[in-house]
Amino acid sequence: MIRVVLPAHLRKLAHVDGEVSLEIAGQITQRSILDALEARYPMLRGTIRDHANGKRRAFVRFFACGEDLSHESPDTPLPEAIATGAQPFMIVGAIAGG
Fold first, then answer.
1. pLDDT tens digits along 65-75
2. 33 near 27, Cβ under 8 Å?
3. Where are the domains of the chain?
């Protein structure tokens, strides 16, 4: 079971509290997690990845095991701690301003 932490605005949009648990068969990658997340919560489609090209939105970041994986290939296998559910895959809304 994969654990996913969403930022507050996406939890509200998906009508969930706390972490989301997803069952994913096969290799655990950013793409497989996001595909499963969007399949289970279709209202999130287009909020994390662009509809047209599937790329991460500019103000969204991905973290796993304390590391920023936002610029990694979406098909790179994630750490074992994510695949086993020991650690959550975190989707974070970046903050900008000045």
1. 999 999 999 99
2. no
3. 2-93
